[in-house]
Structure to design on (82 residues):
């Protein structure tokens, strides 16, 4: 993004975070959880109004937040283009 040098503390933290093997394990666990919730959802008529359907639709916001945070962290650490 050309506005954070490698010496910037925010970028250093992002680089340190994505270089950790726990970061990759956490993201893989989140992908597995997302796959499970996608498999649990149904396109049947009326499913979205059930308590399970409402809970699963709310969980999707959580998955979106986790994957957006991963994206921002990786772009901060590695840059967008170069």
């Amino acid at each position: 993004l050309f506005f954070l040098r490698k010496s910037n503390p925010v970028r250093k933290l992002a680089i340190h975070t994505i270089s950790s093997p726990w970061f990759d394990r956490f993201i893989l666990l989140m992908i597995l959880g997302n796959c499970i919730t996608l498999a649990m959802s149904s396109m049947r008529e009326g499913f979205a109004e059930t308590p399970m359907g409402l809970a699963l639709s709310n969980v999707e916001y959580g998955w979106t937040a986790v994957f957006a945070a991963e994206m921002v962290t990786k772009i901060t650490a590695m840059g967008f283009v170069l």
In short: The chain has a mean pLDDT of 91. The CA atoms of residues 51 and 61 lie 16 Å apart. The chain is about 70% helix and 0% strand.
